[in-house]
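Researcher: Please translate sequence to structure tokens.
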Amino acid sequence: RIHEYKRQLLNILEAVAYYDAIRAHPEKDWVPRVKVFGGKAAPSYWNAKLIIKLINDVARIVNNDPMASDLIKVVFLPNYNVSLAEIIMPAADLSEQISTAGLEASGTGNMKFALNGALTIGTLVGANSEIKDHVGDDNIVIFGMTAEEVELARQGKGTSPRQVIESTPDLKQALDAIAGGVFSPDDRNRYKDLVGGLYDHDWFMVARDFESYYDAQRSVDKLWTNNKDWYAKTIRNTANMAWFSSDRTIREYANDIWNVPTNEA
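Model: Translation complete:
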């Protein structure tokens, strides 16, 4: 699902910041990235649909910029379904599991990506915590606030989102570009309210987790340039995911809940 708590907005903001950095410093040795988005929004969920529009607007600009198009691509796959997932999941190198801490009970997408060899970048939420426990701290990239920190922030404790944005140049530049219509020249006010919501309340901690997320992505870049380390981590990642197999899960259900016999062989 495209949903504010799943923070596809955080992902596309990082893409914009990375794009801005490439344009500002074309002389640097940037690591090429392709960001693939897929999902559906509920019919009446205005902000979710606006985020889909933003992803496509950013893609239109970024993918056609000769200064950056060889280094960053943004793709939104329409009509996301199982058939598309069967192609995407085995092909992915990095699994983005970046929901706001405290708002994702569990999930299976992160397991499917990891079982297929993708390293996980994510928050300590739901099954991400279990994956971390099984694959090891060195084979997963964790960033961002904990559920407890999110709750305190929502109570007004700590730095306000406006203060965070004003003190984070990469984030402010990305938000200014989006709010100013750089990616929507046909309607320069299209994303003004979406950006304004981050300044005013940032309920899903997009602004407050941005810097941690951006830094984590740069650590992924560094790791990617070392093939030996990258593949060692992906192998250990996949090898240690056996606990998440459906065989183990169904056997436990059969023994502990359904009380039916199982063939342990």
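Researcher: Any highlights?
Model: The mean pLDDT is 95.
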